[in-house]
Specification:
Elements: H1 2-10, H2 15-39, H3 45-69, H4 80-85, H5 91-103, H6 105-134, E1 145-152, E2 157-160, H7 164-173, E3 177-191, E4 197-204, H8 206-212, E5 218-219, E6 235-238, H9 240-247, E7 257-260, E8 263-270, E9 283-286, E10 301-306, H10 312-329, H11 331-334, E11 337-343, H12 351-385, H13 387-395, H14 400-436, H15 451-475, H16 481-486, H17 496-532, E12 542-548, H18 555-570, E13 575-581, E14 592-597, E15 610-616, H19 620-623, E16 628-631, E17 648-653, H20 654-660, E18 670-673, E19 680-688, E20 703-707, E21 716-723, H21 731-741, E22 747-752, H22 753-760, H23 762-796, H24 798-806, H25 811-839, H26 841-845, H27 856-878, H28 886-891
Parallel strand pairs: 4-9, 6-8, 15-20, 17-19
Antiparallel strand pairs: 1-2, 1-10, 1-11, 3-4, 3-7, 3-10, 5-8, 6-9, 7-8, 12-21, 12-22, 13-21, 14-15, 14-18, 16-19, 17-20, 18-19
Length: 893
């Protein structure tokens, strides 16, 4: 591969040079590789390749220039081969560059700072992307692991969880999987080791961890038969994080017992660290098979490992066969249902997370490009100002290759210094990212600058050094020595080609920074629109809290404990009202059901609305400041009682009422609840105003509310509390109220409702902040580029300006001319940036809500901001024209 690549580079040489010296150069290159392979460690090989390839490229450029200008007659026995064998960086070039850097500290510091910001930000985002999306899953042969979902195509539901009964049937009927396992979330109350503690739990079948290929760090996995019907199910496995935090990584935990919900469990093992699944709960217990398992509740996560001789396509066809068999055997629950497979690669990151990180990586790459263009512009300006020096060195015997090598040495050293500074910037940036990032980015706490990040930084620095050095090395060649030697350092009119190239660089900087500014403006506008949207509920002085009731208690006792706690909290000082809800607001997801009007029960299944449902107490709507717009709310006499056969009383949201009974009064109407999942009768008691209960983004939730009476026997209880004072102040009283009712009730996850709102938009705010920071830095760099070009132009054209002033030109007219000339590439860059946003619209559109991709306010604000900043950057250095004395300017010539 290397030999082919080297020969491809040699094809850029003139044909006669390639025929005479190609073989010898190729042999010399691979001899050097062999020597360096012995002398240096393996990680030095890419450096050797880069130097060899760079030497070949420089040699080819020099030969083509010499052939084009006919200044050197080719002699295969003379210096060209020795010139190609010279190293890319010589010791004397390095020393000369370091001296130059010491004599121009401000220039050097500005370049290093620009590169440090660009490289540091890029390295930090790359480390996040690498740690979150590119690291492999912690499972052996993860490409053989799949997740099985149910589908309801008729309801336009592509994926949902599997029912318990269907899982056991799939496990027995499939022909494709070596192991198959299911998981169901739960929560437990841990007692016996201090104060009661609520722990996240999960019930898993024996095949779950075996399908993942997990090997415990302590003890063993669940064994075959421990999930069979009748098994005691009193075994437990601990997650690695919980074992470390709660038991200080004590290996003697295996064989001990713990108390969960009042039952004794034997700890048989500790799982290794990792994500997903391994850290999805703190305690795992066996999922014991129920003889008459439920077929209507899609609550089970199912993973499987393919057999060695089974492909994904074969397994998919097998699941289609199983789905048809289930629909034929149990048509009531499985008609129209299917099964689909998803590869384990999807576990690494959700689609929205991938889009967000891809956007941030693209944005920071644009920032890096802006920094590189600015550096190239500065180096080009310095090279144009050193034409006389280059001519002097050429007259003293320096070759064109020597001058180019010196330019590359300078750019590579500057890039190396920028990489060192960038590493420090990346360390600080990662700390800031961890502090600002929302909880939706997995593994962020474990992201660090590792060897991969170091290699990435080094590679970026080499590419930057080559690219920024190539422009000044080739853009300002010394053609004629005599005019160049006569050229005055201050009186030069400048090289038109270099001026044109600097203008192109300025236009590119402005275009890229404008694209980032428009993108940041769109995200800001979208976030403001989301936060300003009518939530439907009040957040001030509202507290959301949860507590656990031990599952070992009878259901009637659990319900009575919940009611007692609610009544006790109502009597606390500062409490206005308390409401129970079966799922706390703004979880990002909710329980779902189908519902239709009873007089339209023959509606097509695809048209059945899929809505959120919750069980609430009579004070929930009052606590959330939700108005009953029609009918009435719940009272303590309303309850769910399926034994009587009477319709269940429910309250529906305005949006759902308008969908089911447009232009009609829904109060008193009959409805079919759980339509398509069996169907239960219901009657509408009232209509409550809309609210965004599941997510603050998007449309208001279509919701059905059940009376909580008769359903309060769960182990996890969510409460919303309205207080007259700061809600955090009642937390101690809240804990005391729980203890007074039952000492075994742990309080957990206490947050204000305003905090939940902020958390629901945390990822959007995180993306907006980072993109705004990148856009601001890019704008600063672009403005610095505009300032540098105009300032350089004024200095280089001092004699020309002196002549104009001496001939009667108005200083303000000359000032206006300089500003207009400086703004010309800025205007071109603005136009290019606006066109570039059209290409980026597809990426941005997926992240916007309530704001269109063509939002005129964002485009106008970004454009005006860039134009004003660029105009100031042109005006400030151009004001030097007003201080030019024509006599002094002409005398300098």
């Amino acid at each position: 591969m290397l030999r082919r690549l080297y020969r491809a580079i040699l094809w850029t040489c003139p044909s006669d040079v390639r025929r005479e010296l190609g073989g010898e150069m190729e042999e010399a290159f691979f001899v050097r590789l062999a020597v360096e392979r012995v002398r240096r460690p393996w990680w030095w090989q890419p450096v050797t390749w880069t130097r060899g390839f760079a030497d070949a490229v420089l040699f080819a450029l020099a030969m083509r220039r010499d052939a084009r200008r006919r200044r050197v007659e080719f002699d295969p026995m003379s210096s060209p081969l020795s010139r190609a064998r010279r190293p890319l960086m010589r010791r004397q070039d390095v020393r000369a560059t370091l001296r130059l850097m010491r004599t121009t500290p401000l220039f050097t510091a500005s370049i290093v700072l620009m590169l440090a910001l660009g490289i540091g930000a890029t390295t930090a985002i790359f480390s996040v992307v690498d740690g979150v999306l590119l690291k492999p899953l912690p499972f052996p042969h993860a490409d053989r692991i799949v997740q099985i979902f149910g589908t309801a195509v008729s309801r336009q539901i592509d994926r949902h969880g599997m029912t318990e009964a269907n899982f056991w049937d799939v496990r027995e009927m499939n022909r494709s999987f070596a192991e198959l396992g299911a998981r169901h979330g739960a929560s437990f109350t841990l007692t016996g080791s201090g104060a009661p503690m609520r722990v996240d739990g999960a019930s898993v079948t024996v095949g779950f961890f075996r399908a993942l290929g997990v090997t415990p760090v302590q003890g063993r996995l669940f064994a075959p038969g421990e999930d069979n019907p009748g098994a005691p199910g009193t075994l437990a496995m601990l997650s690695h994080a919980f074992w470390t935090r709660q038991y200080a990584s004590n290996p003697d935990i295996v064989g001990r017992t713990i108390q969960l919900d009042g039952r004794t469990y034997d700890v048989i093992g500790v799982l290794p660290p990792g994500s997903p699944w391994l850290d999805s709960a703190e305690v795992f217990v066996p999922l014991v098979r129920h003889p008459n398992a439920n077929r209507g509740s899609w609550e089970y996560d199912v993973v499987a490992r393919l057999k060695d001789d089974v492909s994904m396509a074969t397994a998919t066809a097998d699941m289609d066969r199983v789905a048809h068999a289930l629909a034929a055997a149990w048509p009531k629950d499985n008609e129209g249902q299917g099964l689909t497979l998803a590869p384990s690669a999807e576990w690494i990151g959700s689609e929205s997370l991938r889009r967000t990180l891809s956007l941030l990586l693209g944005a920071v790459s644009l920032l890096l490009v802006v920094a590189c263009v600015n550096v190239a512009n500065l180096l080009l300006a310095r090279a144009s100002g050193r034409v006389r020096e280059a001519a002097m060195r050429t007259a003293l015997g320096a070759t064109r290759g020597d001058l180019i090598r010196e330019r590359f040495t300078e750019s590579l050293l500057l890039a190396g210094a920028g990489a060192i500074g960038g590493w420090l910037v990346a360390l600080a940036a990662l700390s800031v990212l961890r502090a600002l990032a929302p909880g939706g980015i997995p593994h962020l706490d474990n992201v660090a600058l590792d060897t991969r990040a170091l290699v990435f930084t080094a590679g970026v620095a080499v590419v930057i050094g080559v690219m920024t050095g190539l422009v000044p090395a080739l853009a300002a060649p010394v053609v004629d020595l005599v005019p160049a030697l006569r050229q005055s350092q201050r009186g030069s009119m400048g090289d038109r080609q270099s001026d044109r190239l600097r203008g192109i660089f300025v236009a590119a900087e402005v275009a890229l920074s404008l694209m980032l500014l428009v993108g940041a403006g769109l995200l800001v506008r979208s976030l403001v629109a989301v936060l300003d949207a009518d939530r439907g509920f009040a957040t001030d002085h509202r507290l959301v809290a949860s507590f656990s009731v031990p599952g070992s208690y009878p259901k009637a006792r659990r319900e009575q404990i919940t009611l007692d706690v609610i009544e006790h909290i109502k009597t606390l000082p500062g409490v206005v009202s308390v409401g129970y809800v079966s799922g706390r607001p703004l979880r990002g997801w909710g329980t779902g059901m189908g519902i239709v009007a009873a007089d339209h029960r023959d509606i097509a299944e695809r048209d059945i609305p899929w809505v959120s449902w919750r069980a609430v107490t009579e004070d929930y709507f009052k606590t959330m400041s939700l108005a009953i717009v029609r009918g009435r709310g719940f009272t303590d006499r309303d309850r769910v009682d399926s034994s009587t056969g009477a319709p269940t009383p429910v309250i529906v949201s305005q949006r759902l009422a308008s969908r089911l009974w447009p232009d009609e009064d829904p109060v008193g109407r009959q409805a079919v609840l759980w339509a398509g999942q069996g169907g239960d009768p219901g009657v509408i008691l009232g209509v409550v105003q809309d609210m965004r209960e599941d997510r603050i983004e998007g449309e208001p939730t279509m919701a059905v509310y059940f009376p909580a009476r008769g359903q309060l026997g769960g182990t996890s209880v969510d409460l919303v509390i309205h207080t007259s004072d700061r809600p955090e102040r009642i937390v101690p009283s809240l804990r005391a109220a729980l203890t007074s009712v039952d000492p075994g009730l742990p309080l957990y996850d206490v947050r204000t409702l305003e905090d939940l709102v902020n958390r629901s938009v945390a990822m959007r705010r995180f993306t907006m902040v980072l993109l705004s920071v990148f856009a601001g830095l890019a704008l600063v760099l672009a403005v610095a580029g505009v300032y540098g070009v105009v300032a350089y132009s004024v200095v280089r054209r001092t004699s020309e300006i002196g002549v104009r002033l001496a001939l009667g030109a108005s200083p303000r007219g000359v000032l206006r001319r300089v500003v207009v000339r400086g703004m010309r590439p800025v205007c071109i860059g603005v136009c290019l940036g606006l066109i570039g946003m059209i290409g980026a619209s597809r990426i941005m559109a997926s992240l916007l809500l309530d704001v269109t991709i063509g939002d005129p306010i964002s485009y106008f604000a970004a454009t005006v901001g860039v134009m004003v900043a660029a105009a100031l950057a042109c005006y400030v250095p151009a004001r030097q024209v007003l201080r030019i004395d024509p006599v002094v300017a002409l005398r300098s010539e």
